[in-house]
Amino acid sequence: MLSRQVRPFFCKFRVRCASSSGALEFEDIPSPKRLPLIGTTLSLLAAGGAKNLHKYVDRRHKELGLIFKDNVGPVSCVFLADPEGMRHVFSKEGKYPVHIKPESWLLYNEKHGYTRGLFFMDGEEWLKFRRIMNSLLLKGSLSWLEESCDAAGEVLVKKLEGFKNIEVPNLEQEMYKWSMDVIVSVLVGKRTYASHQEELDVLVYELAGKVSKIFETTSKLQLISAKLAQKYQLGYWKRFENSVQEGLDSAYSIVNHITANYKDADGLMAKMLSENIKSDDLNRIIVDLILGAGDTTAYTMIWILYVLSKNPNVQKELRNQLLQNKKTPFLKNVVKETLRLYPVAPFITRFLPESVTLCNYRIPANTLVVMSIYTSGRNEKYFIEPELFQPNRWLRNNHEMNMALQQASLPFGIGSRSCIGRKIAEHQLHGTLAKIVDKFQVEMCNREEVHDILQMIIKPSQNMRFKFNRIQD
């Protein structure tokens, strides 16, 4: 039996989304009023433009329901915020799931004849390499991966100790550096990373700066047509193109350095070589793994520090529980609750290979479905007082409620094309957060209200500033 708060809503939409009998037509799906030629563009601009797209879509869901249709540029798509419907989409995504890829990156790849890693692969090629990476990063004993993440976490904590209770300058840069350190440590293994950490530091600092520039220039191309920006060689495109080239060069420099100098490394690269992956394929998969990890975990950790500094009672409770049990479930629940409120990817997209019925509407094959993770994670019918940061809502003593919450909050997605770096991200967030809370009381220095904005991922509206006040032993 579902809990009283969840049962009426959950059961109502489970029946509607699972049944195709008497389903309504695609044309019947609610949609916002549209103006000729420009559609709903003015409404989006009135909501604050592309940086507030997640909030604009959230408002549309509140107006129109858990499913509505609108256009993303010239493409008609269905926005879906129903947890049962989203799981149905993942179950019908097919053998070779297809999602939207950033237009600017596709144009760059085409212009330069550049082949990319898993995110850009489709069909048989994607399936072949995804199965290999699943076996290495998502299955079996991953103690080696956890140890590698911990080694990089120690480097960050030592760096924070050096600021001696003063505000950390360039925190975003430090978090990018930490994200890159984790990936490099995973690539070479804990032992090799620890032995060569100082020489790797030079390369990783350079890489972190280049990766942050890629996402900064990519997000600016969201505001205009990347194709037109390329055609007319606008400054936006030139800066993006230069940043990608520099970022790729830097990532390949690290891969080449590891290959040439660390023959006895026992991390992910060695494990991939044992799978007989060709050198070119190995390099492009690793480079994309490096680029993909840059901003996602960096900003997730910044959001975690933000909510803990805003909730010192939660920070104290976490510290106390860690003293009693280093594996306390409360640690994971703090991360889960942060990702519910601030999922770095607020939308997950799929082009479905067959017709399906979602929320009692027939959806034709090849329709773009945009799953609104931001909205489903803040649905008050699943989450009591959804705007509040409450890690205890994830306690497993209420199993039925917990299962409903798990269905509504999907920051890593599910299905065969879910985030390949999920275990890396979870290990590095849990391990590093435990180390930070053990040693510091985190204090936010920002005085103005912080909002969440969309620039490729969910980011704070201003540079986050923190002090890490050393706790006396």
Describe this protein's structure:
With 473 residues, this protein is an alpha+beta fold. It has one domain: Cytochrome P450 (Cytochrome p450, Orthogonal Bundle). The protein is built from 19 helices and ten strands. A four-stranded mixed beta sheet has the order 1-2-6-3, with helices on both faces. Strands 4-5 form a two-stranded antiparallel ribbon.
Q: Which sequence of strands runs across the widest sheet?
A: 1-2-6-3
What is the straight-line distance between the termini?
A: 47 Å
CATH architecture title: Orthogonal Bundle
Question: Which fold name fills CATH's third level, the topology?
Answer: Cytochrome p450
Helix fraction by DSSP (H/I, runs of at least 4): 40-55%
Helix- and strand-based class?
Answer: alpha+beta
Report the principal-axis shape.
globular
CATH superfamily: Cytochrome P450
CATH class descriptor: Mainly Alpha
- Using only C-alpha atoms, the radius of gyration works out to 22 Å
* Beta-strand segment tally: 10
The unreliable regions are 1-20
Task: Provide the number of structural domains.
Answer: 1
Give the helix tally.
19
Succession of helices and strands: HHHEEHHHHHHHHHHHHHEEEEHHHEEEE
Amount of beta strand: 5-15%
Overall average pLDDT: 90
The major β-sheet equals: 4 strands, mixed
